[in-house]
Amino acid sequence: MRTLEASSLSVRRGGKLLLSEVSFRLNAGDWLAVVGPNGAGKSTLLKALAGEWPYAGDLDLDDRPLRQMKPRERSKLVGLMDQAAFGQFSFTVEEVVRMGRYPYRRGFLNGGDPEEDQAVEQALRDTDLTGLRHRSILTLSGGEQQRCALAQALCHQPEVLLLDEPANHLDLNFQKELYRITDRWRQRPGHAVITVLHDLSAARRFSTAALVLHQGRPLAYGAPETALSDKILLAAWGMDVAGWMREMSEVWS
After folding, report:
1. pLDDT digit string (tens) for 101-118?
2. How many CA atoms lie within 13 Å of 233's alpha carbon, on the beta-carbon side?
3. pTM
């Protein structure tokens, strides 16, 4: 991957404009944090990037329009972590992770493929799930299930990884591990990450760029220290977000 570029990206559903005139540029090694209050259009943007919802505007990966790619080809390049992909079925961890190879399969069954086996092993190692590979996902903790969903997305071997609130509802230890796993993956050649986040501290800590959305429109885009300034956060949330966070942090001083 060299560049993922969005230009004037807009999404309309049911006659309602959910996202309007969003533009950004993502290079290999970048981590873009997409932030904003509820209803700002963050998840809508990810659905457009993943090809799940139609959009107006331009979205190109290495100068190739994503809308012109077949779904199977696109899914090899842009992977979305699907937290509900395995539902309530008693699959093992390894089976869930192996589902991430579906775009590469030539038929329903693809057993004995050494490339698939290698991708599965790499994803299990990356997410520290090798020791749990034969466990039913129904017996895992919430944090372990999130890591399993992440491993499935990594097994796609995408160039761009899309994450929608990956650490939501996780305890602090699992949040820390999930962010660090993602950050290590992001630093490998040809990889980039786009993450929807409510955790502004994580956005400042891990992202290389931030996109602030408000009522479906971009309010700021750039380096985290400028895009997440006190003034912009105030405009997006209608409150002194930075002041509140500093006040909360004082209890640890």
Report:
1. 887 776 555 556 888 999
2. 20
3. 0.91
